[in-house]
Write a structure and sequence with these properties.
Mean pLDDT: 91
Oligomer: single chain
Low-confidence stretches: 236-244
Distance between the termini: 28 Å
Shape: globular
CATH class: Alpha Beta
Number of helices: 10
CATH architecture: Alpha-Beta Complex
Strand content: 15-25%
Strand order of the largest sheet: 1-2-3-4-6-9
Length: 247
């Protein structure tokens, strides 16, 4: 894809790299970006040569959440009317992805951006990285974060992230088994890619079969769980601006 792409997508040696590509906004998401994310993940699932996905962000950060300036712009962008569908499509593509997803968590994953990090099967975090789900204390719903937390983690872990709105640092993410590994900040991308490539190098089809077996064993229906979360915390009103990280 071109440098102007909102999502950079490439395949090499069985590994698909899906990169959020709005570094000037710390990869804050907008509707068209989510459409492109869904397309990339669906393409990886459909390509039998792909055995693993590396999900990462351009510019040294993972995702600062929803781009509030764009969502609250006046006049409203043309894509805003379909933004809920775009969000659902991106998360459904994550849920339906047929290969393991390794997330490279550089710097932070905030609010709506945290859900994309939590959706991965394995997460490699930088030693000073953090995740924050602040919507509840801001009076906003966070259905996708709730869905992924309930799919992957016990209630005590979900409560800490979902109810407190605190920044959860990488060492705590590791202790709670949210992170698979914590590494020096300058090697997150390298270590995550190495882990994803190790999975991609497995015998053809084995990673897909392993992921399918895990889902069957644990009785997970991620798409249904996502739909249930959206129904339990319907989005009302508009996004309210909040302070973004300065660094």
């Amino acid at each position: 894809m071109s440098e102007e792409s909102l999502i950079n997508y490439s395949i090499a040696a069985g590994l698909a790299t899906v990169e959020l590509n709005r570094p000037h906004r710390r990869n804050a998401v907008i509707g068209p970006m989510l459409d492109a994310l869904a397309d990339a993940l669906n393409a990886a699932s459909a390509d039998e040569s792909v055995q693993a996905v590396l999900l990462c962000g351009a510019g040294g950060a993972f995702c600062s959440g929803v781009d509030l300036d764009e969502y609250n712009a006046d006049p409203a962008p043309g894509w805003l009317a379909n933004s809920a569908e775009s969000t659902a499509a991106a998360h459904n593509a994550l849920a339906e992805c047929t290969v393991p997803i390794v997330v490279a968590l550089e710097r932070y994953a905030i609010n709506g951006g945290a859900a994309y990090a939590l959706a991965g099967d394995l997460l490699v975090a930088g030693e000073t990285a953090w995740i924050q789900i602040g919507e509840v204390i801001q009076g906003l719903p966070a259905p996708m974060n709730l869905a992924w937390l309930s799919l992957r983690h016990p209630p005590a872990v979900a409560s800490r992230l979902f109810l407190t709105g605190e920044r959860i640092p990488a060492p705590d993410l590791l202790a709670m088994s949210i992170a698979h590994r914590v590494v020096p900040d300058d090697s997150v991308r390298t270590e995550a890619e190495s882990l994803a490539q190790r999975i991609a190098d497995s015998p053809p089809g084995s990673a897909r079969r392993a992921k399918a077996a895990l889902r069957q064993l644990y009785g997970h229906d991620p798409v249904a769980q996502l739909a249930q979360a959206r129904e339990s915390m319907p989005i009302r009103g508009t996004f309210r601006p909040t302070a973004a990280p300065k660094n």
